[in-house]
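SEQUENCE-TO-STRUCTURE ENTRY
===========================
What this section holds: a protein sequence and its matching fold, both as plain text.
Tokens: labelled as protein backbone structure tokens, with as many entries as the chain has residues.
Question of interest: how does this chain fold, as expressed in backbone structure tokens?
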Amino acid sequence: MLRFKGRGFLSPNSFRDQRPSFRNFKVYIVRLFRIYTFAFALLLVLCGAVTNATAQGASGGDEEAWDKLFEQGQDAHARGKLTEALKLYEEALKLNPEFPEAEYQRGAALVSLKRSEEAERAFRRAIELRADWAPPHAALSALLFRPLPPNGSDNAARSREAETSATRALELDPTNYTALTLLADLRSSNGQPREALELLRRATANNKASASVWARRAKAERLSGDLKAAATSLDRAQNLEPQNLLTQLEQAELRLAANDREGAAEAARKAERISSTTSSTEFGGRDLLLYLMNFYARVGKKEDALRIIDRLDESTKNSPNVIILRSELSGTFDANAVRALEQVVERDPKNASILARLGAAYRTSDPARSLTYYRRAAELEPSNVDYATGYASALVQARHFPEAVVVLRRIIAVAPDNYAAHANLAAALDELKSYAEAIVEYTWLTRARPELAITYYFIGRDHDLLGQYAEALRAYETFLQRADTSVNALEIDKVNLRLPTLRSQIKRGMGRKPRATKP
């Protein structure tokens, strides 16, 4: 049996499946009609009206003709001869314009031929002819759920109508597989994973449930917090179709939810390989590339994300969101990236995320403007520690050190492991010549990132400035052991110049002991 590509359209033989007694019933009616025709013909013969009897007999032949065309259309459809099937359906409809089953199958053929607007009209006509039949409602819903290009069409209105049609299909047939999966997608996209999960449980109760539906169920289970159930559902999907794209993408999401970033990235790469060898009508092309781009960025795989960006078409590559992400991944905000950010803010002035990104873009080139953007972001989302930290770093860059210290201490009080906050606080205290307090922060930084040699240089320098020569020497020596000449050449030269004098001072008993400080 042929299976349609697309989101859950029924097979070309689905009408037979929906009405298993149709042909028997039809044969019974035709036979009964012939009996009545024969009797009536005899009556007319007796009355001398044989000609009229012949005309009545011909009407049975017309009915048989349009039904035969429909049957032939279904057979062609099953063999994948879509154009031939479409022609036969249309010929049947010429003989019988009020034939909902033919309209429905005609719409299914048009969907496969990618003639969506005509398919939509066919499904609407089938509903008009037979409003109490679930399949055309479900098929129309699936068609409406597909977003249209941004050419003035109201995708939000289409989505609402899609939901209405799917709901009506389920009212008529609570087991309608297409409607169940479609409504689940709608609930999931609207942030209602529990409602989506209930619908998907009903859908997977159908022994015809596909790997993609099991993958959707896994997603709903993951979003509901049940990672174990999600893994079980993915196993079912994998067993049904090992190379299913949606299953592999959900595997990547599940691994990320379990904090396995390396495993998540590898699963995403496998999804890439699957997409290059198979075609998915549910998720592919540009949408898949954008998804992978963002996913790699989320798991910290910058090179993979940039590689996906290079695969995008020029129009998508130059869209504001992609330009912004590329800049973030590369760590440089050029004029194009800043312009893209500002365009987004013009359209959405309360977008805290974009405001914060603008704050980061201007932090070194225009600290005053950076402060403005970070302040706006922090005001919109006061509990967002990242925005507050960005604001504080802009204060440091703008040399507003006392204000920065106040903000940074508040941040550390609620987020004690915030590395950027500790680093900025150390820098601000250094500038305020509060060296003892700065040393406390630098010491915290060495515990968090012991591989960063430069931190030991700052500790040594601040001990040196406080006259704590023995402590300064230990820090300087640690710095020299770990420093990289290609990165820390200037500081290495400074320390090497200082060490002979410092050792001499220590030998002569100079210097002070540090006061005890709380880390």
